[in-house]
Amino acid sequence: MNEDLSPDERRSQHRAEWEARIMPVITPEWMSVAAIAAVLGAKASTVHERLNDALKKGLVERRIVTNRQPAPPTKKRRRQRHVRRLEAQFRLPQK
């Protein structure tokens, strides 16, 4: 069946399949990419790429948040250090 399609048609079909998988999972509440990937059972990087495609089409909204996480331990650490990590969160557009 896919042999009859051009590469552009195959690519658009693949994206449409992903949109059909992702859109029922997205809610009006902010969700991290990792949480969405866990529900779908897919890699976070793949889900993030597909969500960016949906963002370009205006199907979802995105925000970037910073999370403080403990730094990896060192030999002579007296107080806890933290590292800022950026995380993308997505939700359905608010009207």
Please identify, by name, the CATH architecture. Orthogonal Bundle
Quick check: average pLDDT? 87
> What is the overall number of helices?
3
Strand content: 15-25%
* Helix vs. strand class: alpha+beta
Q: How many domains, as an integer? A: 1
Q: What's the Cα radius of gyration?
A: 18 Å
Order of helices and strands: HEHHEE
Which strand order spans the largest sheet, edge to edge or round the barrel?
A: 1-3-2
Distance between the terminal alpha carbons, to the nearest Å? 39 Å
CATH class: Mainly Alpha
What does this structure look like?
The protein has 95 residues and is an alpha+beta fold. It has a single domain, classed as Orthogonal Bundle (Arc Repressor Mutant, subunit A), CATH 1.10.10. It is 40% helix and 23% strand. Helix 1 crosses helix 3 and helix 2 packs across helix 3. The longest helix has 16 residues. It is elongated, with a radius of gyration of 18 Å. The chain starts with 6 loop residues before the first helix and ends with a strand.
In short:
The chain is α+β, with helices and mostly antiparallel strands and 95 residues long. 40% of the residues lie in helices and 23% in strands. A 3-stranded antiparallel beta sheet has the order 1-3-2.
Characteristics of this structure?
95 residues, elongated, alpha+beta, 40% helix, Arc Repressor Mutant, subunit A, 3 helices, single chain, 3 strands
Please outline the helices and strands.
Blueprint: H1 7-22, E1 31-32, H2 33-40, H3 44-57, E2 61-70, E3 82-91
Antiparallel strand pairs: 1-3, 2-3
Helix pairs in contact: 1-3, 2-3
